[in-house]
Every structure is written in structure tokens, then in C-alpha cells.
Design brief:
Layout (H helix, E strand, L loop, with lengths): L2 E2 L8 E4 L2 E4 L12 E2 L13 E5 L7 E4 L4 E5 L4 E5 L22 E4 L2 E4 L4 H10 L7 E3 L2 H23 L3 H12 L8 H14 L1 H8 L2 H14 L3 E3 L5 E4 L5 E4 L6 H9 L2 H14 L1
Parallel strand pairs: 4-7
Antiparallel strand pairs: 1-2, 2-3, 5-10, 5-11, 6-9, 7-8, 12-13, 13-14
Helix pairs in contact: 2-4, 2-5, 3-4, 3-6, 4-5, 6-7, 6-8
Length: about 280
């Protein structure tokens, strides 16, 4: 990260991920008036340079956020206080201003805004009081980001470990959710490869599916239908034996047929049918 400062109107340029950021620019603010009912943090304040990042994947060339006509509810005072960012006041609270004030704009460039530690008024507005914090932008925290990255790596490792040790039937059940009927024509090697890729790409969803017994039950029902052991009516409301058309269960309205079948397999009657289907599949 590199920083460049100029006298007069302060301009701060910082390189993050090969992008240049300017903390202030004479751009008009967007419509204001958003209010936030929340108490500012009481934790000790650290004097340091701070980085603020627009949320989402979009990184507009410039994006101004309101610097006036915004409000903060002060729970200790018991009323809503007007906020305004200026270059000649030591506070952002309008009711504490002394004398004239000079308005300043708050502009993100390339989705980022770097505020040096010398600009404490702007930092405290953005970190503690601004109503758009959390919804439009967040304060960059390298420690928290590192913790998140560690958590993600550990989750990915857990998913990959589970995928490596998963039997082929469970793997088929999990991948059927991801790929549908395509899994029926896949070789065991293809299935294992796609399973590992799925675990790496979306470890959280993979682990949820791997630990969901309904996924395996649904897979059994789908396979039984594909092999013509049981059949689903054209209106997708009734399951029955394919051999004699004897009705097995009715699908509740607005419920997925195989999810309903999986739930029915857990009933006393359904358990007997499930056991019979398993024997035929084997």
C-alpha cells in the first residue's frame, strides 16, 4: 500500500489491489435524509489510517455519499442529532458547531475510500455515525478479513475431506441435487471428480447436503422411478407401484414430489416400502 499527500486541499491516493483511491473530490452528494437509530460504539478509538469499501461487486469510478442532512439518534441525549461533514469543525454534530462551517464532499473512487488518521472527523462519521454504513459501505478490517479467510479455508478442507471419504451412493445423492438426472449416466470417476469440485466451489452447501438424510431418501425415490419400480403420476400428485398401480402416497399441494416422498419414507408405512425398494435396487 503506498500513500501520497499534497499541501492545501488534501488528496490521499492509496494502491489496493492495483486500484487508486481518492478520499475527497468535489462531486455532488446523492439524495440524503436516511436516518439511523443506533448507539455509537463505546470501545476505545484507535488513531490510524482507515479504508472504507463499497459493498457488492460494483466498483463505480466515483460514488458520492451524503455528507449533510443525515441524522443519528443519540440514546444518551434522547433525541435525533443532525450530522454534517465539514473541513473546519472538530465535530460532525451540527448542534456542537462553533461559527461558520465549510461543507465537504465524501466520494468513493473505484469503490474505495482511504481516510488518513489526520482526518478524525471524517473517520468517526464514517465508522460510527453514518446511516449508510453496513448497507452501502463497510470499513475494511484486515484482521477480520484474515479470520474470515481462515474460516473459509477450514470449511473448504472439511468439505473436501468429507467428499474424499464419501461412498458412491451418497455421492450420487448429493450430486443429483446439483446435476439432476445427469448423474445416472456418469462413471464413478466422473462422479467423484464433480463431487470434489462441488465441495471446493461451495463447501457450505456441500456439507449441508452431505448431512441431510432427506437427500439420500430423495435419491432412492428418483432412482426407483427411473428404474420403473415406482411411478409418479402425470400431475405429479401421486406415487404408486409400477407393477400393479397400487397407490403409495399423495404429494401435498405446492410441495416437491420427491421431497414429499422422502418425508413419507420416514413414516411407518413408508419405511416398509423404502426397505422393499432398497432390496430391489440392490
Amino acid at each position: 500500500m503506498t500513500t501520497k499527500r499534497k499541501s492545501g486541499n488534501v488528496s490521499v491516493k492509496t494502491e489496493i489491489s492495483k486500484k487508486t483511491i481518492v478520499s475527497e473530490a468535489p462531486k455532488p452528494a446523492i439524495p440524503t435524509g436516511t436516518r439511523k437509530v443506533e448507539k455509537a460504539p463505546n470501545s476505545s478509538w484507535e488513531m490510524k489510517d482507515r479504508t472504507y469499501v463499497l459493498k457488492g461487486s460494483a466498483t463505480p469510478l466515483t460514488h458520492a455519499i451524503p455528507s449533510s442532512n443525515i441524522y443519528y439518534f443519540d440514546e444518551e441525549a434522547g433525541y435525533e442529532r443532525e450530522l454534517k461533514y465539514t473541513t473546519n469543525q472538530r465535530t460532525v454534530f451540527v448542534d456542537e458547531f462553533k461559527g461558520d462551517h465549510r461543507m465537504a464532499h465524501i466520494v468513493f473512487e473505484d469503490g474505495l475510500l482511504i481516510v488518513p488518521k489526520q482526518k478524525q472527523t471524517l473517520q468517526k462519521l464514517l465508522s460510527n455515525y453514518h446511516p449508510l454504513k453496513g448497507s452501502l459501505y463497510v470499513e475494511y478490517n484486515p484482521v477480520a478479513e484474515a479470520n474470515n479467510e481462515v474460516d473459509m479455508i477450514e470449511l473448504e478442507l472439511e468439505a473436501l475431506t468429507a467428499a474424499v471419504g464419501m461412498d458412491i451412493d451418497t455421492a450420487e445423492a448429493v450430486m443429483r441435487v446439483e446435476l439432476g438426472s445427469k448423474v445416472s449416466s456418469m462413471s464413478s470417476k466422473e462422479l467423484k471428480r464433480d463431487l470434489l469440485l462441488f465441495a471446493k466451489r461451495n463447501p457450505s452447501l456441500f456439507l449441508d447436503l452431505a448431512n441431510d438424510d432427506n437427500v439420500s431418501l430423495r435419491n432412492i425415490g428418483i432412482k426407483a422411478t427411473e428404474l420403473n419400480i415406482i411411478k409418479l403420476s402425470q400431475d405429479q400428485r401421486t406415487f404408486s407401484w409400477a407393477s400393479n398401480d397400487r397407490k403409495l402416497c399423495t404429494v401435498p399441494f405446492d410441495e416437491h414430489p420427491y421431497s414429499a416422498l422422502a418425508a413419507w419414507f420416514k413414516t411407518d408405512e413408508g419405511m416398509e416400502v423404502f426397505s422393499s425398494i432398497e432390496k430391489r435396487l440392490n
